[in-house]
Amino acid sequence: MFVKIKTCISSKFLPYSLVSLCLYLCVVISASFLSTESLAENNKASCWISQPDLNFGTVSTAGGRSNTSVKVTCNHYGHTKTVNLTMCLYIPEGNPSLANNRRRISSNTGSGNASSYLSYDLFYDPALTQRIDTTANPSSLRCVNQTLSPSENQKDTFIMLYGSIYPGQNVLATRYTSFNMPLTLLSNSSEDKVLSAQDVIAQNKTATNNLLVTANYENSCYLQSVPDLNFGQTDNLLQEKISSTTISLSCPINTTWKVSLDNGLNFDGTSKRMRKGTDYIAYALYRDASLSQIWDAKSIAQDVGNNGTQQIKIYGKIPIQSKTIPAGDYLDTVTVTLTY
């Protein structure tokens, strides 16, 4: 095409109007050629990614978290200005497929046994607020920017991925794994500007590798919450003070569990005590609202797990104090032990 244009311009015997037409075509086609060349110049970078592993280790009904880094290597040659690299990661559905819009890993080891699934998700950030989508969606895609100076032809960038296994799952106690998680990198480069996610998606330059996700699941019990027992404020310890709190726990079905409390940090051999400096306030813990079943270090609450939340109510009483107590904040720490 370029040779033909030169021939058109160099003709000395064409009518003026035709020469003008040829010159007009020359300008338009030449401009088109330069635009294509400029685009190619901005797209010389090549990027590829490592094969990362996301291992949650041992998890239970409490769930679990883990993270891993993806190594992205990009090269670019022949540039005389700083090159702006833009790299965007997303992770398609893979195998096992999604269920209830959650990613899953499987217990199936290939032996033909029916699979059990453990649900989890992947995120761009450690706060687990930016979920990684299964498609290159401009509204959810997060990108990382890097630069190559004129003296640099290659650079490594590490992109963090964060995983979270949802709590409250009661599944087969075994190892879980993904089979095909096509970690996908979209990338592009420019010497003129920092590219947006939309720019990178439009170019559609991809590199892929497999993300291996694994976890070992144990059917175990755990304490969901142990709130403080707070007697509040008072200016009169010539009256009893009553308060309560609730321990929440979870255990797999048919698992026998036991909960015990120690006597706290300030036990004097007779009474539990809250302390402020050298001053103390005596108190006691009970298993019932009528305050007839005292809870000491030998007391045990027990039941059988049901896969859900089970609760234990603890009641506290400050008896009438026989002496004047200095004002201030009085504290004690009682250890709760869950055995199963």
Automatic annotation (TrEMBL):
Residues 44-177, 208-337 form the Spore coat protein U/FanG domain. This is Spore coat U domain-containing protein. It comes from Acinetobacter wuhouensis.
